[in-house]
Amino acid sequence: LDNDSNLKVNAVQPKPSQVKVDVVGSGKVKLEISVPAASSLDLFCYECEIKVKNISGMVVARTTDGDIDIRGSRSALVEAYTTTGKLHFEGEILPSGSYTLKSLSGAVSLVLPENADMRLSATSFRGGIGLGDFKWRFSKQTDQFVEATRGEGRASVHVLTKEGRKILVEASTA
Prior knowledge:
The protein is mainly beta.
């Protein structure tokens, strides 16, 4: 914990599989938490950045003002919401997985494996939608909305930005 003000940090373990961390006060805090890869995460914070790396359990990340960066994901359920901030997802798209990524005011980018099997629904009210080199079967396509499928469309991917610059979906190079 890096703390540059008079903040109070309280961590409790209500159940063996849960940890709840409360930060009370105002000021800048950098909090780093390490968990086993199979952990499920339910994260919420005000005016902060959330970074998640190498998690295979459920990931729910919400912030009112800050970026969300999820990398190395092997999770079948990812939900990420930010009101003001960029959102980045880089990871596997698992069969029957559900992925929801929403930024009210910020760009959204996804870096996915070339073999991603998914149904994509992408909405960008202000920016465009870039779909990279993937081969898509489009059911609907406008400048602001896309419904498309890759493979059998087993996973569900929903992406939205209202005031953000762009939605970008591209293939990973690894």
